Each structure stands twice: as C-alpha cells, then as structure tokens.
C-alpha cells in the first residue's frame, strides 16, 4: 500500500533529518539515491527505506536484501518522497540510517594513515575526500571542530557510499588530536609551502595523521606548529592552487604508491 500523506509522522520525522539539529537529536541521517542506499544496506545500519514504484532490477534487489535484514520498507508517492529528499529530482529511494562511530583510540590502534580535516566547510569536498580516502586504503576520517557536518545530505551523496565503508569521528579539538596521535606513535603530516618538502621526495610510510586544512586558509597555525612532516605538491602550470579534495587525493595516493612499491 502506497503512503501518500505528507503529514504522516514517519514522513515528517524523515524530512526533518535534512536539518542538522534533528540529525544530532535522533542519531539518524538520510542516504539518498540507489547507489548510496545499496551500500547503506550492505555495510551500514539502516532503520527504514522509503521508495516509490519499483522500476528496475537493482532497486528490487536492494529492497529484497533490506527485507531479509528486517529493515522497514515504506512505499510512498512521488510527492512524499520529494518532501523527504534533499535533491530536486530524487532517484526514488531514500534510507534512514543510524550514525555509527568509533572512539579515537580505536582509530589510532589501526596503525593506518588517517585523514584529518581542519575546518573544511564544503560538504561536497568532505564527501569527495572520504570517497578518495576509502579508495586509497586510509583507515578513517577525523573531523576537527569547525568542519561541515559529515552526515549532511550533500556530504553523504558525495561520498558515494564510502561513508558506510570507513569509520568517521567528528568534533575533535586540535589539542586532543595532537596529544592522542603522539601517544599512539602517529606523526602529523600537513601540506603547506613554508619549510615543506617536495611530496614526491618525502617519506610517507609509517603511522601518519594527514591533516588537510580549510579551503581558504589552510591548516591552522597550531597544527602547522605541531606538524612532524610538511609537504608541498609541485605544480608546473599557472594555477595558483588546487582544490582541497584534489590535493588530498594526490597525497593519499602518493602514500599508497610508496606502500605498494
């Protein structure tokens, strides 16, 4: 039976998750689009799924997998789905997912490179860096205070399902990060120009917490001062700088290249 009421309590509660305060209150967030929902069902903790008419085998398959996991399925009208969705033209399926996280000491116990974001404010950049970190084999994503919400709809979409593959932890202070990293034998790696080594001549092996800074101002002075390694990405063209997500990808894959050689 198709749910059509825009004032239905389930619909209103799901639509509220587009706002950060309701996500934080409920510990829930939205995963929108077929690819993202597939990964959420496979690797995440999904509470419910809202969907419109089933028109393809992939949608049917993910709903069958969800049903087998006892996930609540709700068939809704196009108007209802549009009320819940963050996008103007939703793909026809949205999952309500539970936030999951590890403690900082669990991140550091992995020994893998960690990506740390310092006051990165664009949700699309954060989602893209999470996706790239996933592809590069990074152990997790740490967001310092002042970053955009990792669970914002745009961030979730940009991660293309990687949010359900990698652990994330938000709201850390600079001081806590530095102290915990030092205690766990991690070195802080930053990108900058002053006193930095060429990325392709730097040693990126070992336990590294790689910090990417704010889009406009870079890494904070405190983190620059605490950094054990500073690198710059050599460029030959006339562009003044790189997008933060692009720069992060270059560094993470250089670290992977060194690991694989």
From TrEMBL:
Family assignment from sequence similarity: Belongs to the class IV-like SAM-binding methyltransferase superfamily. RNA methyltransferase TrmH family.
Keyword hit for Glycoprotein: no
RNA 2-O ribose methyltransferase substrate binding domain segment(s): 30-103
Record PANTHER family: RRNA METHYLTRANSFERASE 3 (PTHR43191), RRNA METHYLTRANSFERASE 3, MITOCHONDRIAL (PTHR43191:SF2)
Protein name: Putative RNA methyltransferase, TrmH family, group 3
GO biological process, one term: RNA processing
Keyword Nucleus: no
Signal sequence segment: none
Pfam annotation, one family: SpoU_methylase
SUPFAM superfamilies on file: alpha/beta knot, L30e-like
GO cellular component term of the entry, any: cytoplasm
Keywords for the protein's UniProt record, in alphabetical order: Methyltransferase, Transferase
GO MF entries: RNA binding; RNA methyltransferase activity
